[in-house]
Write a structure and sequence with these properties.
Low-confidence stretches of chain A: none
Mean pLDDT of chain B: 89
Helix content of chain B: 40-55%
Oligomer: heterodimer
Distance between the termini of chain B: 44 Å
Strand content of chain A: 15-25%
Order of helices and strands of chain A: EEEHEEHEHHHEHEHEEHHHH
CATH superfamily of the largest domain in chain A: P-loop containing nucleotide triphosphate hydrolases
Structural class of chain A: alpha/beta
CATH architecture of the largest domain in chain B: 3-Layer(aba) Sandwich
Number of strands of chain B: 10
Number of strands of chain A: 10
CATH topology of the largest domain in chain B: Rossmann fold
Number of domains of chain A: 2
Low-confidence stretches of chain B: none
Largest sheet of chain A: 6 strands, mixed
Number of helices of chain A: 11
Strand order of the largest sheet of chain A: 6-7-8-3-9-10
Number of helices of chain B: 11
Radius of gyration of chain A: 21 Å
Strand content of chain B: 15-25%
Shape of chain B: globular
Shape of chain A: globular
Distance between the termini of chain A: 55 Å
Structural class of chain B: alpha/beta
Chain lengths: 290, 279
């Protein structure tokens, strides 16, 4: 599903002394199947933005279009529940939302709520459990007896069980160890590709944005500060530093390399292995020119 | 010789008789004024070590000695005066309704006289660069600011060792940077030991020494440079390796001979410079 924001404003507690503008004239268009990274500091409007994607918030003014669903200040779509069955949101620390007696019941809650038939739910669980890296033996256990990493995976499985077309991830790996972070992000990326999802990843990690995203939106103080491919956005060091964001480490290194050796190596989202080869070739090239 | 401050002697711990050992025969020493990072995958026993250090838990086997005192139910209050701890979630650590009340709380519990309290509040808030927030309510602070107040509250009771148990994990990059700058300043100025339990590689690189935990055992104990030289083994036990170390490895694979194991961009560029001038 394509996602379009047109001049979206959102004001918390509008018409009160506590009114606070969280989004200002936000416009963008995301074609179906894109992996989007939304980056910005705490308070930049990232979380407000993603709550518009399934109608948890409706714009104070402007229009949000998700596939064929329109959300404006005047109208929430009557079929909001239908929209929500297509937009899966993994909130921050989703394991805090686990509530049921067993892992199986917890995962089934979402699809059952959306009226999915029991045997279809069971089939989905069979498919999802290995995908999120859990063991079927855990299905009968209480989710509260599991480790933090396992609880996170159960909560994610609950969102995937509704088979969303749009996946919204709000810092899904915060607090996990490096291996857990990599496993979960790789899992989301594989799903994104296999099921042709449209994915919104809210992250502080420039490294994840570089690794997974096709498109990057940088938020600052409720407005869209920059937008483009990772190559376009992350090479703009000055502009990013102005909003206290760092460029990814590989670009920091390329910049330092250029000022030391006067050799400019382009950032093409290359792997570290390819970068090493480039450095070697650059050194040899310079020598053979002399 | 540096003076020992914390000593684990053959410590084993589990949460119940039927449960597996979380720590098994763990021994190490941490010295006065030293900065040690403890790393390891989730469930490796890192946080259990922190909780054993100030008597939130007691080991079933072995001894833990803090500044010459064995940690037991009888000595725990003396130990806690010396061991300050800051945890992961900034929202779980506030008790006061204003910043100054919060910092005062720990001192009130220890019967610090009022004039002394006022003086220390000023001192510790200055140390964490939050002196302008004396009367601010906690919910108006950012996560990084809250953690700095948590550190100030701990410093106010003048501990000999400060333990940060994933204290930056929930913060954004700017918040992390603020905290690490604050603690490294404090560590230099106050001559206290610092123990950071973390996944953040930038924090690990700053430490003098690293203890690597794996499945309840001490897997390695060395300088960051020595630890990060074991890249493949680290990955096997679920840990990350800094970008610079990976790049250095790939360069070596391309027959570019680096003589040292670089830890940051400057060191790697220096190595490359030497190599370049010889080519």
């Amino acid at each position: 599903m394509d996602i379009t924001f047109k001049d979206v404003n959102y004001i918390y507690q509008a018409n009160s002394p506590f009114a606070h503008k969280a989004l200002e004239k936000l416009s963008f268009h995301i074609p179906s199947g894109t992996f989007v990274a939304v980056v910005g500091h705490t308070g930049s409007g990232k979380s407000t933005l993603i709550q518009h994607l399934n109608g948890l918030l409706t714009p104070t003014s402007g229009e949000v279009q998700i596939g064929d669903y329109y959300i404006t200040s005047e109208k929430k779509p009557e079929n909001l529940k239908e929209l929500r069955s297509k937009v899966g949101v993994v909130f921050q620390y989703p394991e805090h939302q686990l509530f049921d007696e067993t892992v199986e019941k917890d995962i089934s809650f979402g699809p059952r709520n959306f009226g999915v038939a029991e045997d279809e739910i069971n089939a989905r669980i069979k498919e999802i459990i290995p995908a999120v890296g859990l063991d079927e033996k855990l299905l009968e256990r209480s989710p509260f007896d599991l480790s933090g990493g396992q609880m996170r995976r159960v909560a994610i499985a609950g969102v995937l069980a509704i088979k969303p077309e749009i996946l919204v991830l709000d810092e899904p790996t915060a607090g996990l160890d490096p291996r857990g972070q990599r496993e979960i992000m790789d899992m989301f990326y594989a799903l994104h590709k296999e099921q042709n999802l449209t994915t919104f990843l809210v992250t502080h990690s420039m490294e994840d944005a570089v690794r997974y995203a096709d498109h990057v939106i940088i938020m600052n103080k409720g407005t869209k500060y920059m937008e483009g491919t990772p190559e376009e956005v992350f090479t703009q060091k000055e502009a990013l530093n102005q909003v206290q964001l760092d460029v990814p480490e590989i670009i920091q290194f390329l910049n330092a390399f250029e000022s030391r050796f006067g050799i400019s190596l382009a950032f093409k989202r290359q792997s570290v292995r390819d970068l090493a080869t480039q450095i070697k070739e650059a050194f040899e090239g310079v020598k053979s020119d002399e | 010789m540096r003076e020992k401050f914390i000593e684990f002697r053959n410590v084993s711990f589990r949460y119940g008789e039927e449960q597996p050992w979380v720590l098994e025969n763990v021994s190490f020493e941490i010295y006065k004024d030293e900065w040690v990072a403890i790393i390891g995958h989730n469930g490796s026993g890192k946080s259990t070590i922190a909780k054993l250090m100030n008597g939130l838990l007691y080991p079933q086997q072995g001894e833990i000695i803090i500044n010459g005192i064995q940690v037991t139910a009888e000595t725990v209050w003396d130990v806690r005066k010396q061991v300050g701890m800051v945890f992961q979630n900034p929202d779980n650590q506030f008790v006061g309704t204003t910043v100054q009340d919060d910092v005062a709380f720990g001192m009130e519990n220890r019967g610090v006289p009022r004039e002394e309290m006022v003086r220390r509040i000023e001192e510790v808030l200055k140390a964490v660069r939050m002196e302008d927030y004396l009367l601010t309510e906690p919910h108006r602070l950012s996560g990084g600011q809250k953690q700095r107040i948590a550190i100030a509250s701990v410093l106010a009771i003048k501990p000999q060792v400060l333990i940060l148990d994933e204290a930056t994990a929930m913060l954004d990059p700017r918040g992390r940077k603020e905290i690490m700058q604050t603690v490294s300043e404090i560590q230099e100025r106050n001559e206290i030991s610092l123990i950071t339990i973390t996944h953040d590689l930038q924090e690990v690189v700053q430490a003098e020494r690293v203890i690597v935990m794996n499945k309840g055992h001490v897997w390695d104990e060395a300088t960051p440079r020595e630890v990060f030289a074991k890249k493949d083994e680290l990955r096997e036990i679920g840990l990350d390796v800094p970008f610079v170390a990976i790049l250095a490895d790939e360069l070596k694979r391309n027959n570019m001979r680096l003589s040292n194991e670089p830890l940051n961009h400057e060191e790697l560029l220096e190595e490359l410079w030497t190599l370049h001038s010889k080519m």
